[in-house]
Write a structure and sequence with these properties.
The protein has 4 helices and 4 strands, in the order ββαβααβα. The chain is mainly α.
């Protein structure tokens, strides 16, 4: 269960989302590419098939730019 206790104007869930996003954003450009997503999942010892990756990006990449930004990531996280 995610904590929603407030910490300095931000809640802990927001901090967790930001930290997790940073783990996936390998080049720290503010976006997660499919390659970065796959690498991060592999680092967590979880394999993602090409079909799964396509589905994740189809449902998460709202602006359809081929990347997931923090807002899209947070929306998917909280869904």
């Amino acid at each position: 269960m995610r904590s929603t206790a407030s910490s300095g104007g931000r809640n802990m869930a927001d901090d967790e989302i930001t930290r997790t996003f940073a783990e996936f954003d390998g080049d720290e450009d503010g976006y997660i590419t499919a390659a970065e997503f796959k690498l991060a999942m592999n680092a967590r010892r979880e394999e993602v098939s090409g079909d799964d990756l396509d589905s994740i990006f189809k449902h998460t990449d709202d602006d359809e730019d081929g990347r997931i930004n923090l807002a899209e990531f947070a929306e998917a996280w909280n869904a």
